[in-house]
Amino acid sequence: MQVISMSSRRWLHRLALIIAGLLIQFVPPAGLNAQPTSAASDNEPLRIGIVGLVHGHVHGFLRDAMAREDIEVVGVVETDRDLLKTYGDRYEVPEALRYGSLGEMIEAASPEAITVFTNTYDHKQVVEESARHGVHVMMEKPLAVSMEHARAIEAAANEGGIQVLVNYETTWYPSNEVVTQLRETGRLGLIRKMVVHDGHFGPKEIGVQEEFLEWLTDPVLNGGGALTDFGCYGANLMTWLMEGETPIAITAVTQQLKDDPVYAQVDDETTILVEYEHAQGIIQASWNWPYHRKDMEIYGEAGYVIAPNRRTIRYSEKNSTPEPEREAPPLNPAIADPLSYLRGVVRGEINMTGYDLSALENNIMVTRILDAARESAASGRRIVLKSE
Q1: Fewest Cβ atoms nearer than 10 Å: which of 51, 100, 203, 371?
Q2: What is the pLDDT of residues 262-271, one digit of tens each?
Q3: Domains and CATH numbers, the chain
């Protein structure tokens, strides 16, 4: 079995760019050093369980997982029996694979990993139970509602010897991979400013499922509103770009601009200023934009790059005419989506660093940034994270 080395991968990227002057295909990193958890052959399908059906992203995930030959869905868990029947029937999940509890599913089906689509507050409980059985976990973003939960997740993962991964849509954007290539090869120079925009015109307005909206707008179950739902993307990407550096301080402003009572308990507009020793990050998270957006701008001493969407980038060197917008090269299909990536982690085919996008260490920092942002917004103060 061939293991992909992070250091070798970066060296090859640099060499290819020097020789060809082109952006090459980048293999996305995202977790800790993965090790196989069973005696299963690398050629056998990865046995996964799906826990929770109240997160809207489960639709595409369950559909894709049921259709793939390299993935075997061995159980679906949901305490709401009506919801379990609705989803089970829609995606043709056999009755025998439908469970009312995680413990029951682990005992009966022996999954190698579980994927989590509960509310964010329940992530802690799911990881703790999975860790007791030595079962790896991939959850939908963000990691946790608070640092208290994040540290409990970390402790459980360490004690159980499991991987805990966090899945973000933007992890699989070819455009964002090109941004990191430009940084790693020195074409941006020292980063001075990062601006990340994420959001849409509101979860109710875009028509999310009732069970999804119910907890998205609950300050306990979601940990906030737009700040949590979309602020986590920018914190995740900045932690990756800054290679895990702890910010000096966080300053945030949140607002409730919507009149609809469904949003009465949470923010719907957030701006977070992230101060680093040599750089500044601005996270703009909103449920008020008139369109869907997930884009990023990186400004360095040697150049800048803008990734306006998942597939295109615009790059320019300092004092040069901007290059025309170009399409980013596709990701390696072997690990270009969360299911393939999870399989690679569990089977020990990917070596990862702590600040990679799906890594537990990165996402503990994300939680730390979001916790400080909530404190800053509530108090009106700048929250210091490390000595200046």
Answers
A1: 100
A2: 999 999 999 9
A3: 174-331+355-384 (3.30.360.10)
